[in-house]
Design brief:
The protein has about 280 residues and is an alpha+beta fold. It has eight helices and eight strands, in the order αααααβαββββββααβ.
Length: about 280
Amino acid sequence: MSDQEETPGNRLRKELPEELPATPAEETETPASESGLTGRQRLVNGLWPPRVTRAQLIVAVLLFGLGFGLAIQVASNSDSDSALRGARQEDLVRILDELDDRTQRLQDEKQGLEKQRDELENSSDQAEEARKQTVEKERQLGILAGTVAAQGPGITMTIDDTKGTVEADMLLDAIQELRAAGAEAIQVNGVRVVAGTFLSDSDKSVSVDGNKITAPFRFKVIGNPQDLEPALNIPGGVVQTLEKEQATVTVERSDKIVVDALRVAKRPDYARSSSR
């Protein structure tokens, strides 16, 4: 066999590419700093420190502002409704009854005025009827102005302030609450309360229209006892406020309360009647 003759094996070897030398599996060089870390540690290193973009920062600030505003709104609504939400069912029913009573008093007053009008229109002697109504109106105005004594059903409220924590604004709140409940005449420690009455603090005591009064503070009030007492005992009302100041409050109903402290009628300096 000559050298030019080729065996099938030699011809096949020539057609195939030359065999490349075997190389070891591709080795990845691991940084020396990560060669000894576990998978969890590598995950933590990938997440921290966070890479925050400017857009993500703006969105985070906007979301924080929105959440803060909602929290303030919820807190304000909770504060305004906390008194009634914490009230018992009996207290809520009593508040509704008080509102109904006030509405009924206004209706009664309206009917009384309409009756007076009808009497003036239908009376055979309108002049005499007008005189009687004038006298009656003068008496009523005298009670409101404190120039005449008054008596009738009502309550007596006594405030014992052994700690000296009761201030003028607390007594003023009590007067305003009594007026709103329909009080027609009020007297505090011998001082008649009228429309222009003012209270102020004075040397660890309270001054009413310039008259210094000290504890215990005794309120004599003429009005419907069924309206006056519940108004003082509503949740968050006068009694609870005073008790928070460590004062003791007692309220007693009576069929006859005498308000005999009088005020001197003063002629106004500037106001004059506009009627001719």
